[in-house]
Amino acid sequence: MSIRILIVDDHHVVRKGLVFFFGTQKDLEIVGEAANGMEAVQLANSLKPDLILMDLVMPEMDGIEATKRIKQQHPDMKILMLTSFSDQDHVLPALEAGASGFQLKDIQPDELVASLRKMMNGENQLHPKATTHLMNRFANKGKPERGLLEELTKRERDVLQEIAKGKSNKEIASSLFITERTVKTHVSNVLAKLELADRTQAALYAVKHRLVE
């Protein structure tokens, strides 16, 4: 089954380059293109793609505002930010707006395709530079508040740490020597106990509370 994708970027050449490359992938289908955030919101409503590849800085409406509006209407729609900006002033607002991932435009085409497929499987996708900026932002916040974190079991905390490293359920199962089905159960418990919506928010939570190096 194909992944239906909406491409949003104000540069015509970028859009056409992505359309051309994705066209070589049997499981990817480009259902539309948008040149700004306003068009993205309109097309998301009419086309209902599985995933949106969203630029960050655009005229009329930027990617963050567009993401907020789209997620309000379509909370299950996946949005991957693809931009040239990796600083914390852009990364965190994008993720808080509802983006499921954050990648830079210097990413290799095959790695981008891999990120799209992993996102559709529920995995968070953060460029290493974006992760570094997030960790630096929270590094000097002082001792973390325990709060909901105390509700997690030792194994659930281990799984949360693995999620923050960007690992898939299969990779977590291998690392912790448990079944993939057990991992799925732990992930569900972690999200429920921490009152988080998805793995991306879980990864941010782990970084904020310094559960990963």
Q: Would you write up a description of this structure?
A:
This protein has a 6-stranded parallel beta sheet with strand order 2-1-3-4-5-6, with helices on both faces. Helices cover 52% and strands 14% of the residues. The mean pLDDT is 86. The chain starts with a strand and ends in a 5-residue tail after the last helix. The chain has 213 residues and is of the alpha/beta class. It has 2 domains: 134 residues, Rossmann fold, CATH 3.40.50; 67 residues, Arc Repressor Mutant, subunit A. It contains 10 helices and 6 strands. It is globular, with a radius of gyration of 17 Å.
Shape: globular
User: Biggest sheet, in brief?
Assistant: 6 strands, parallel
Based on the structure, what is the oligomeric state of the protein chains?
single chain
Quote the distance from N terminus to C terminus. 38 Å
Q: Quickly count the domains.
A: 2
Q: Which structural class matches the secondary elements?
A: alpha/beta
Total beta strands: 6
If helices are DSSP runs of H or I spanning 4 or more residues, what is the number of helices? Answer: 10
Element-by-element helix/strand order: EHEHEHEHEHEHHHHH
Q: pLDDT below 50 for ≥5 consecutive residues: which ranges? A: none
Cross-sheet strand order for the largest sheet: 2-1-3-4-5-6
Query: Architecture of the largest domain, according to CATH?
Result: 3-Layer(aba) Sandwich
Query: From the alpha-carbon coordinates, what is the Rg to the nearest angstrom?
Result: 17 Å
CATH class of the largest domain: Alpha Beta
**Beta fraction of the residues?**
5-15%
Q: Which bin fits the share of residues in helices?
A: 40-55%
**Considering the protein shown, what is the CATH homologous superfamily of the largest domain?**
Response regulator
User: Please, what is the average pLDDT?
Assistant: 86
The name CATH uses for the topology of the largest domain is: Rossmann fold
